[in-house]
TrEMBL record:
Pfam families: Cu_amine_oxidN1. Residues 33-138 form the Copper amine oxidase-like N-terminal domain. The keyword Methyltransferase does not apply. The keyword Acetylation does not apply. It comes from Alkalihalophilus marmarensis DSM 21297. Keywords: Signal. The lineage of its organism: Bacteria, Bacillati, Bacillota, Bacilli, Bacillales. Residues 1-23 form the signal peptide. It comes from the Bacteria. This is Copper amine oxidase-like N-terminal domain-containing protein.
Length: 350
């Protein structure tokens, strides 16, 4: 038994010792010209070296990257620079001159990773490792650090159920990036396409936006891999839908006692949310907000606030179709908590 246990310890040590990627490595953030980058493959630490995704960074710096599947070779060009490297090889070529890298280029999750230092050598960029923030900071070569003009005419509006963001197009710009946030002073994230920051020409549509949400946007221009400053911030709010149907709240008794109109229009005299109306007042006889009444008491049979009732108020349309039950009894099918009812109605246009 001791022998088996000893073998297990030795095997565990061998596996751990030769695991090339640090298990406790923190997420590494990449900045290019002080702009945060997001790729579908994060940097890793291997053999004490930081490996970064080649294509994403090279393209962000303005290089054109080509992949030769047969030769397992990557070729990148920018201005007067030509870079070649082969997967699994420590040897690279920059303008025909051979250079060696500490850790060979390798494919991880379908992406080519190379040592961080190689990025600087290959494209003449300045590369810094910030240990305190666990981040990589890359700056384009000084000869190319001429920021393009900040985008103008930035606009955000509603179009066909999405938020459309556009700006004035400049022929002297290579492409644009758009950043978004759910708060004006919050963190802005770039739109991602195929694992890298989306390269845009004229605009973008922000889909999957929910009704009532407000989103904020700012745009940058990129020329020769150098990104401009941010444009002015613009925003748009997705409106709630308008539903022409009318819902009523009624008691689940034989008389179907009318308890008011289920509408978020608080000016409607019959709205259950009009606190001055008969059906929205906490004193109204037919109000579910009257904690002493037949429809709001925690003890009443037909109350919305009775946790145990099986006959709470129900939502119906003009044809009598039941849309749900307004109740604190969460075990009932179609249960909508009274305190959540306004949001549910608003989201559905009532």
């Amino acid at each position: 038994m001791k022998k088996i246990f000893l073998i297990f310890i030795i095997l565990t040590f061998v596996i751990t010792a030769f695991n090339p990627v640090s298990a406790n490595a923190q997420k590494i953030t990449i900045y290019i010209n002080d702009q945060i980058q997001i790729y579908d493959q994060d940097p890793i630490i291997q053999q004490g070296r930081t490996l970064v995704p080649l294509r994403g960074i090279f393209e962000s710096l303005g290089a054109n990257v080509q992949w030769n599947q047969t030769q397992q070779r990557i070729t990148a060009t920018k201005d007067n620079r030509n870079i070649e490297l082969t997967l699994g090889s420590n040897q690279t070529k920059i303008n025909g001159n051979i250079h060696y890298i500490d850790v060979p280029a390798q494919a991880i999750n379908g992406r080519t990773l190379v040592p961080l230092r190689f990025v600087g050598e290959a494209l003449g960029a300045t590369v810094n490792w910030d240990r305190s923030s666990n981040s990589v900071k890359i700056y384009s070569s000084k000869s190319n650090v001429i920021k393009p003009a900040t985008p103008t005419g930035v606009y955000a509006g509603i179009f066909d159920g999405t938020i459309s963001v556009s700006w004035d197009y400049d022929n002297n710009v290579d492409y644009y990036h758009v950043y978004f946030s759910n708060s004006y002073g919050g963190t802005y994230y770039p739109f991602i396409l195929n694992g890298i920051k989306a390269k845009l020409d004229y605009g973008i549509q922000h889909t999957s936006v929910k009704a009532g949400e407000t989103w904020y946007y700012k745009v940058t221009a990129v020329k020769n891999g150098v990104e401009s400053g941010f444009s002015q911030i613009v925003s748009a709010t997705m409106p709630y839908p308008v539903n022409n149907k009318s819902l009523s709240l009624v008691a689940d008794n034989s008389q179907r006692t009318y308890l008011g109109k289920a509408t978020t229009n608080t000016y409607d005299s019959e709205s259950i949310f009009n606190e001055y109306g008969s059906y929205g007042s906490k004193y109204g006889s037919y109000s579910i907000w009257n904690s002493y009444g037949s429809y709001g008491s925690p003890y009443a049979t037909y109350s919305a606030f009775n946790d145990y009732t099986s006959t709470p108020p129900i939502l119906i349309d003009a044809e009598g179709t039941v849309y749900g039950r307004v109740t604190t009894n969460s075990y009932l099918p179609g249960a909508i908590h009274p305190n959540n009812l306004y949001e549910v109605l608003q989201r559905n246009g009532y």
